[in-house]
Amino acid sequence: ARGLSLSTSGASNGQTIAGAISTGTHGAANAFGAVQEAVLGLHIVAEGGKHYFIQRETRPAVSAEFCAFLGAELKNDDDLFHAALVSFGSFGIIHAVLFEAAPLYWLERHVKRLDYGAVRDALATLDVSSLQLPGGGALPFHFEIVLNPYALGAGQGGAFVRVLYKRPPGPSLPVQEPGHGQSIRSEDLISVIGFFSDIAPGLIPMVLQDELEESFTETPPQGVLGTHSQQFGDTTPTNGGTSTEIAVPMEHVGNALAAILRVTAGENMAMPLAFRYVKQSDAFLAFTCFAPHTCTIEIPTIDSVRTREGYERIWAELRTHKIPHTFHYGQALPLNPYWLEVFGARRHSWLEARSRFLRPSGRRMFSNAMIDALGLST
């Protein structure tokens, strides 16, 4: 209504602003980055009920007078800002967020079904010139590829390419129902996959392909127009669903895929693989930390003992083969500090900023089970 839009969103709809920022939720805006890149300031309530407004010193957005009106102490500090941005609630209660909106635009969605061989090079290079997309060789605003790990042969059509181009808005909103065909996390997809995963594993390769074809219906040549909320409309909780999401540098995409396929080849598991590409984040502990682009590999499925064991084997393969990787904090992940080593000095800067901002009592107050297990509490 105000002619504005988020600069990017998650790959599905329904997250909270604070939750999306605090866990590094990202979408696939490869030229912009994750949701937190739009943030200009955080209004945080810390220990003792003290209010703070944290912003970059190098890019201030508000004045001391504005913070006085809020009753908040102004903190102009780049390191503190980049630490608190993705911090899982461990700097205090996020009371408000100031973010930069973009002029309203529409997204034009195109979906194609191809063989894995046709997308293999694009997976690791972002060279889309051979995919015959509407924009030719230009990388779309949003680019993702979903693979069926059991349909990677010639003629099997196991790769689903979904792209979104930014378009100027028209005089009225596009008329469309979001439906289930726009999100890998659709309730029907997870529930059906879960049934076959637990009851009839032998049927998974065939059923997974059928479900992906239904969820990723090929679009007409002109594409489908919509706003963010229309293109990413899956707001229904996926009961019984789970997911893990792994981020790797572009040069290791092939190695990471091979590690995952070694696990899925050994036992049929209903695990589609969604590849998305995100510009490196400035936030110290954002899991999209690899430059210039991070490739994220999301693996959604039904929650079960077999799923958890499968995730553990995938994580072990990545570690065994020394593939640099991080994990989305809002999904299933290994509660072990080993993978935080990849952050290097960024991890030290995060810990140092938190120690400067909170006293030991405050650091205890705003700790949680995840940061305790990851060695980030002290």
**Strand proportion:** 15-25%
Q: State the secondary-structure class.
A: alpha+beta
Q: What is the count of helical runs?
A: 12
Which strand order do you get reading across the main beta sheet?
Answer: 10-7-9-8-12-13-11-14
State the major sheet.
8 strands, antiparallel
What general outline do the C-alpha atoms trace?
A: globular
Uncertain parts = 180-188
Average of the residue pLDDT scores: 90
**What is the helix content?**
25-40%
- Cα end-to-end separation: 45 Å
Strand-and-helix sequence, N→C?
A: EHEEHEHEEEHEEHHEHEHEEHEHHH
Indicate the radius of gyration in whole angstroms. 21 Å
Would you kindly provide a brief summary of this structure?
The chain has 378 residues and is of the alpha+beta class.
Write the layout of secondary structure elements.
Layout: E1 4-5, H1 17-23, E2 39-45, E3 51-55, H2 64-70, E4 73-76, H3 78-84, E5 93-99, E6 102-103, E7 106-114, H4 116-125, E8 142-147, E9 159-167, H5 187-199, H6 204-215, E10 224-226, H7 228-231, E11 241-249, H8 253-266, E12 273-279, E13 293-302, H9 305-320, E14 326-327, H10 345-357, H11 360-365, H12 369-373
Parallel strand pairs: 3-4
Antiparallel strand pairs: 1-6, 2-3, 2-5, 7-9, 7-10, 8-9, 8-12, 11-13, 11-14, 12-13
